[in-house]
Amino acid sequence: MQGFLGVDVGSVSTNLAMLDADGGVISYVYLRTQGQPIMAVQQGLMELEAKLDGSVDVIGVGTTGSARYLTSVVVGGDIVKNEITAHAVAAGHVVPGVRVVLEIGGQDSKIIFLRDGIVVDFAMNTVCAAGTGSFLDHQSARLGIPIEDFGRYALGAEKGALIAGRCSVFAESDMVHKQQVGYKLEEIIYGLCQALVRNYLNNLAKGRDLAGPIAFQGGVAANAGMKKAFEEAINQEVQVPEHFSVMGAIGAALLAKEEKLLEPGPSAFKGFGAAKIDYRTSSFACGGCENNCEIIKIVVDDETLARWGGRCGKWEVDIIRRQHLEPIGADCSKCG
Amino acid sequence: MTDGFKVGYPQALLYYKYFPLWETFFNRLGVEVVLSGPTNKALLNLGTVEAENELCLPVKVFYGHLLALADKVDAIFIPRMVSVEKSAYTCPKFMGLPDMARATETRLPPIMDPTINWKLGWRQYVKTIIELGSQFTDNKAKILGAYHAGVQSLHQYQDKIRAGATPIDIIESKEAPRAGVADLRIGLAGHPYNIYDKYISMNLIKRLREMGTDVVTAEMIPHSELEKESQTLPKHLFWTFEREVVGTVFHWSRRNSVDGIIYVLAFPCGPDSLIQSLLEHEMRRERSTVPMMSLVIDEHSAEGGFLTRIEAFVDMLSRKKKLAGRVAN
Amino acid sequence: MLMTFPQMGHVEQLIGDILERLDIDYMPPPRTTAKTLALGTKHAPEFSCLPLKLNIGNFIEAMEAGADTLLMAGGKGPCRFGYYAELEGRVLRDAGYDFTMVTIEPPSMGIAKFVRPIKRISGKSTRQIWRALKEGFPKARGFDMLEKRVLETRCFELKLGETTKAHKEAMATLVKAKTPAEVEGAIEAGMRLIDAVPCDREQPVLKIGIVGEFFILLEPFVNFDIEEWLGNRGVLVSRSVYITDWIGPTSKNPVAGTSDAELTELARPYLGHFVGGEGVPSVAHTMLYANEGFDGVVHMFPFTCMPDTIAKAIIPRVSRDYDIPVIHFTIDEQTGKAGVVTRLEAFVDLLVSRRRAKRAVNG
Question: Does B222 touch chain C (CB under 8 A)?
Answer without folding.
Answer: no
